[in-house]
Amino acid sequence: MAAGPPVVAAAGRLWQVEAPLGRGSSAAVFRARCLGQPRSSPAAVKEFLPPGSGPGGGGGDYGFRKERAALEELRGHRNIVTLYGVFTNCSSTKGPSHSLLLELLDVSVSELLVHSSQHGCSMWMTQHCARDVLEALAFLHHKGYVHADLKPRNILWSAEQECFKLIDFGLSFKEGNQDVKYIQTDGYRAPEAELQNYLSQAGLQGGTQCTSAVDLWSLGIVLVEMFSGMKLKHIVQSWEWKANNAAIIDHIFVSKSVENSAIPAYHLRDLLKSMLHEEQEKRATAAEALCSPFFSIPFAPHIEDLVMLPTPVLRLLNILGDASLQNDKEFEDIVDDIREECSKYGQIVSLFAPKENPGKGQVFVEYANAGDSKAAQRALTGKRFDGKFVVATFYPLSAYKRGYVYQTVL
């Protein structure tokens, strides 16, 4: 942390502030763990700069109050980051700084896009992200809020709840009461926000007022990037896009090979077009977008999805051969060895090794939390076990609890 004690009190507990996770113009984010409760989930501390220390001397007081108010009002939705508490660090030489204690989330969509830049994200992951973020937007728009900075870095995966969540409400505002001049990020900025930002920079009034429709535009761009594997920043700034973005979307979908039937891809294409109308009045709302037939199609995850998105369940591949499956004594001995090895990384809630398809030869290990599962995945991947190299992926807890085994797409 910039200054002050490494231990802080918040949400009725003491927290040890640890490694930095990131830094912006008005705030820095740190990892924190709860003292006295080693098995509890870690948290994130977002520390806002004291007054006078930010660019132009403004500091982060206003941003702190603004984000705190939004997160307190939006608290409780599974697709919005959880605010645990707030505290003030009074020991800084630059003056008191305010902090938010937040749920610590995992991989961002920005990181997922880096890993899928050659081929795009799977339809399973794209659908999962689209549904989760639309659920969040439908909720916050119903509450009168506009997020106003939706982009890949602000959509993060929750390993414990197996869903994507929205973070960073520093530019958010109540619809009809916009209190910031410049909203959204280059490449994800809606046309009306682009115009408004330009007029504000020129010191002029006028233009169309920004509404919740700006969030649908941003999400539409994010989803096109996930599907295509391409960054669209320069494309959306071109005159061709402004003249006819529907034709460009059509071209992206035609040029990208789709492994399964083209029908699901066309449903996604139509959904994205409904979110990317140049005229905000014609854009689908979040609630309308959730009714798309795209969300009625069941997809299976790719193996890359199950490596990238942590959950409390670990799936071990290439560990049980046909011989061990047919010999009960050998099977039980190997399963006991697996249990003993996996217990080194955390508390095991359950272990399942099916002898028949689906899932024949795989081993599923459910940990008490995703942190232990991640530690085990790092340690076991590539390790030799009974003469075989282990492949360790995560597995959706919801599917595991239902006894459902995906026929994973490789």
Automatic annotation (TrEMBL):
GO cellular component: neuronal ribonucleoprotein granule; nucleus
Keyword ATP-binding applies: yes
Location of the Protein kinase domain: 15-295
Keywords (A to Z) from UniProt: ATP-binding, Kinase, Nucleotide-binding, Transferase
Family annotation (InterPro entries): Kinase-like_dom_sf, Nucleotide-bd_a/b_plait_sf, Prot_kinase_dom, Protein_kinase_ATP_BS, RBD_domain_sf, RRM_dom, UHMK1, UHMK1_RRM
Signal peptide bounds: none
Chain intervals for the UniProt region annotation (Disordered): 42-62
Binding residue positions for ATP: K46
Molecular function via GO: ATP binding; protein serine/threonine kinase activity; ribonucleoprotein complex binding; RNA binding
One GO-annotated biological process of the protein: regulation of protein export from nucleus
Protein name: Serine/threonine-protein kinase Kist
Organism field: Eublepharis macularius (Leopard gecko)
Gene it is expressed from: UHMK1
